[in-house]
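wait is this the right file?? whatever heres the structure
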């Protein structure tokens, strides 16, 4: 059982959409934040158009409204251009951190005082297998996901005594446009399958099921953790 409504960034993406779909089957209300709408809304889903490149605007747009948000899933992610650091512009580096980390900071700052009063809250960040290892041509993305894991663990340590949990999921390669990157890297899908011990790429539903489990009321002892769901790619 999930308590309260769920705020989810990046809810129009591959993983985000699957999370919203699973929650909608349980009659859970979702407030979805994304840059634009690109699909039909699920039952009990409210869409809010917010550009997370400007995370400081989230406060004025979302939080004047009373949605009883007790769960926050930070699913938004941006990889940026697939180039080495010398060819990565400062604006791209900043945008990657705005979306992958700073937007979570701005949202959580608004939610935590209320969660403390209610003695309950769930924060879940979607990181990446690149939060565990580095990667060529993904310096900013990998750095931001490493930072997100540190952020999540520190929130768990700081707020756990108030009934608030803070966790991460680090997916490996997921069958989404961002996960496969066929446009950026030639023959990428085949190469991923060959180097993954499970010899497959994840469907977004597999990540969404883990999200659902961690958000559950009875998952209260899961705190400050980073769950790798990557087919074993970081185990070798």
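ok assuming it is, sequence goes like this
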């Amino acid at each position: 059982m999930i308590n309260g409504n769920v705020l989810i960034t990046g809810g129009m993406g591959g993983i985000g959409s699957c999370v919203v779909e699973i929650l909608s089957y349980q009659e859970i209300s979702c407030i979805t934040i994304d840059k634009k709408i690109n699909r039909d809304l699920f039952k009990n889903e409210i869409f809010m158009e917010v550009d997370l490149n400007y995370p400081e605007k989230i406060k004025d747009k979302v939080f004047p409204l009373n949605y009883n948000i007790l769960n926050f899933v930070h699913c938004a992610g941006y990889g940026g251009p697939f180039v080495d650091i010398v060819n990565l512009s400062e604006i791209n580096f900043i945008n990657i951190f705005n979306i992958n980390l700073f937007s979570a900071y701005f949202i959580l700052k608004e939610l935590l005082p209320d969660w403390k009063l209610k003695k309950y809250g769930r924060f879940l960040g979607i990181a990446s297998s690149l939060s565990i290892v580095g990667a060529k041509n993904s310096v900013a993305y990998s750095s931001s996901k490493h930072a997100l894991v540190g952020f999540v663990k520190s929130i768990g340590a700081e707020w756990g005594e108030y009934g608030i949990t803070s966790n991460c999921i680090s997916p490996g390669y997921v069958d989404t446009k961002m996960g496969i990157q066929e446009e950026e890297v030639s023959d990428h899908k085949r190469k991923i399958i060959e180097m993954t011990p499970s010899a497959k790429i994840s469907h977004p539903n597999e990540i969404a099921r883990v999200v659902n489990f961690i958000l559950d009321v009875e998952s209260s002892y899961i705190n400050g953790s980073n769950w790798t769901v990557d087919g074993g790619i970081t185990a070798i």
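Residues 5-235 form a domain with the Rossmann fold fold (CATH 3.40.50.720). so i think its the right one actually
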